[in-house]
TrEMBL record:
SUPFAM superfamilies: S-adenosyl-L-methionine-dependent methyltransferases
Protein name per UniProt: Class I SAM-dependent methyltransferase
Domain Methyltransferase: 46-131
Organism, scientific name: Azospirillum endophyticum
Transmembrane recorded as keyword: no
Pfam families: Methyltransf_25 (PF13649)
One example of a Gene Ontology biological process annotation: methylation
CDD domains, per database record: AdoMet_MTases
Origin organism lineage: Bacteria, Pseudomonadati, Pseudomonadota, Alphaproteobacteria, Rhodospirillales
Any GO molecular function: methyltransferase activity
InterPro entries hit by this protein: Methyltransf_25, SAM-dependent_MTases_sf
Length: 202
């Protein structure tokens, strides 16, 4: 499925606006966003990897006084984010190999990280570690088990992949994060598998 994985950036550049139009605004993620927010200092900084149009997830944090830096590879979606929240930073960049000259109180990769191949996901833990401030919160979604899956967006094949839960735990530990909460296929979050971790401060 390697060729399908290579198409992810192009798909969201071509169809990002269609995806955004159909994206739920119900904020079904709120229970997890609240848990993540509880680990952040008041008025802290959030790095949103795969921020899309910033609505509704980045907007949730902005409305609560956090400073958001969003990363995405889709210019149409970033254009919407800049229109909606011009006082925040929205950068056209690939999360893989990202190297910003600052660290953040929280790092979020909600429904974005799981579009990467297995090896790219493994390498992302160095990115998380490099951009996390002491005691930074980290939250990402994954699949429920090791494997690959294909969805669809506007008739094009949409790649997803996941490592095994034990490997995610090992990668978090090796890069200085402790698991705070984990739910496999959470029924209170539309069946998402969610990881919430916190960087060790010492």
């Amino acid at each position: 499925m390697t060729d399908t994985a290579d198409q992810i950036i192009g798909i969201y550049r071509r169809h990002g606006l269609a995806w955004e139009a159909g994206r739920s605004r119900s904020l079904f993620e709120k229970v997890w966003l609240d848990r993540f927010r509880a680990l952040l200092p008041c008025g802290g900084t959030v790095l949103d990897l795969g921020c899309g149009s910033a609505d509704p997830v980045a907007g949730y944090f902005i409305e609560r006084g956090f400073a958001v830096t969003g990363i995405d590879t889709s210019p149409p979606l970033l254009g919407l984010a800049r229109e909606r929240f011009p006082e925040h930073r929205w950068l056209l960049s690939d999360m893989r190999g990202l190297s910003l000259p600052r660290r953040f109180d929280g790092i979020l990769a909600w429904n974005s990280f799981f579009h990467l191949r297995w090896d790219d996901q493994r390498r992302m833990f160095e990115v998380f570690q490099r951009h996390g401030a002491p005691a930074a919160a980290l939250m990402f979604t994954s699949g429920p088990a090791h494997g690959e899956a294909i969805g669809a967006l506007q008739g094009e094949r949409l790649f997803h992949a996941s490592l095994d839960g034990d490997e995610y735990r090992a990668l978090l530990d090796a890069h200085g994060f402790d698991v705070v909460a984990y739910v496999r296929e959470d029924p209170d979050c539309n069946g998402h598998t969610v990881w919430l971790a916190r960087a060790r401060s010492g």
